[in-house]
Design brief:
The protein is of the alpha/beta class and 264 residues long. The model has no long low-confidence stretch (mean pLDDT 96). The protein has one domain (3-47, 65-106, 134-263): Acetylglutamate kinase-like (Carbamate kinase), CATH 3.40.1160.10. The protein contains 8 helices and 16 strands. The chain is 32% helix and 25% strand. The chain has helices at residues 16-22, 35-44, 65-89, 137-145, 168-178, 212-215, 223-235, 251-256, and strands at residues 3-7, 28-32, 51-53, 59-61, 94-98, 105-109, 113-117, 120-124, 130-135, 149-153, 156-157, 163-164, 183-188, 206-207, 241-245, 261-263. It binds adenosine-5'-diphosphate.
Length: 264
Amino acid sequence: MTLVVKVGGASGNALMPVLADLAHRTDYVLVHGGSDEVDRLGEALGRPSEYYTSPSGVVSRKSDPAHLEVLVMAIAGAVQTGIVAALTGLGVRAVGLSGVDGALLTARRKEASRAVVDGHVVLLKEDRSGTIERVHADLLRLLLDAGWVPVVGPPAVTPTGEVVNVDADRAAAAIASALNAEALLLLTNVPGLLRNPDDPASLIPTVARDEIDAVLPLAAGRMRKKVIAAREALNGSVPRVVIASSRGPDPVTRALGGEGTVFE
Ligand code: ADP
């Protein structure tokens, strides 16, 4: 079965248990973000990360050219290389691809992102972020059929060759849809979608397709993108999406077993 697993890059995520659990599987694509590393490298380079909130409440990273440069170095560089090296150490034949390689993730650049600043909506004109319009799934199939594990992360590329930032959770949803994956796992630093983000015991175990819009207001900040990604994957004919913890032993097996928030 083709599985798409996205592992988070914010602090509190655990990478090695995810890789160890995946090492004995075949036919999966690993998608990654890398927000902690972008923040760390940005600080080191004197270009600290900045975030903005859209009018609909979605929190995004600012991606003007100077910040995009850091993002590419961190995600397509340090994070991806680290994951591919770690998988290699586990005996897995892994290949790292950013969305730019082979135009794997082709996106439309957003004209201007809208941000709420001091209660007013402003346009971020220099923003280099995009919306994925096409996934070249044939490249992924080529690798999977030959026994390679694709390790994929932002950025993406426009048809005119501009590099743009895209959200890794939504990229994972687009990849899962394009591959007709049996499941999409969004592994993160919390047990799933929580009714109260401060209370891990308030986990919502299941969300039916027609309940997603009702639970969306519960998901603040960056969790909102995961719920949006879950909706996009279900609409893209992925039968099952699980938002679950990357921490503890066997996180992939446990998420596949329904531990976390199951959307179907
Ligand atoms: P990752 O790097 O793993 O993708 P993010 O930091 O982007 O992680 O998103 C997960 C974060 O979303 C959680 O750590 C939590 O702070 C936040 N969050 C906001 N609302 C919720 C909610 N209702 N349930 C769970 N987490 C939430």
